Amino acid sequence: MITLEAGGKEFTSEGLARWLAGLELEAHTPLVFIIGGHLGLSPTVLRVAEHRLSLSRFTFTHELSRLILLEQLYRAATIRAGHPYHN
Fold it and tell me: What is the rounded CA–CA span in Å between residue 57 and residue 41?
């Protein structure tokens, strides 16, 4: 489980691609990304999260965060595939 929160780890696009590749090798289950609503994430979710990720130092709505996350996951996949999309 990966929570998206302001205090999470920040990456460049290339760094995110490498990090995700490493997680895929370690993971025995699918990766799950948790984005909180306007009240944030519950303490229970934060306690059980294995990783914490930040999309930016800016604050986004959870709807916009989903779009940004999706684009970054696509970008990471294209980087790993050697596709020039990210340049």
Answer: 17
Q: Which of 33, 32, 40, 31 is nearest to 61 (CA)?
A: 40
Burial 11-31 (b: 16+ CB within 10 A, else e): beeeebbeebeeeeeeeeeee
Return the amino acid letter for 23: L
pTM above 0.85, yes or no: yes
CB atoms within 10 A of CB 74: 12
Taking the C-alpha atoms of 5, 11, 15 and 20 in order, what is their torsion angle to the nearest 10 degrees?
0
pLDDT tens for the chain, 87 residues long, are: 999 998 899 999 999 999 999 998 887 788 999 998 888 899 999 999 999 999 998 989 889 999 999 999 999 999 999 988 766
Pairing of strands 2-9, 51-53: parallel
Given a contact cutoff of 8 angstroms between Cβ atoms, the answer to whether 13 and 86 are in contact is yes
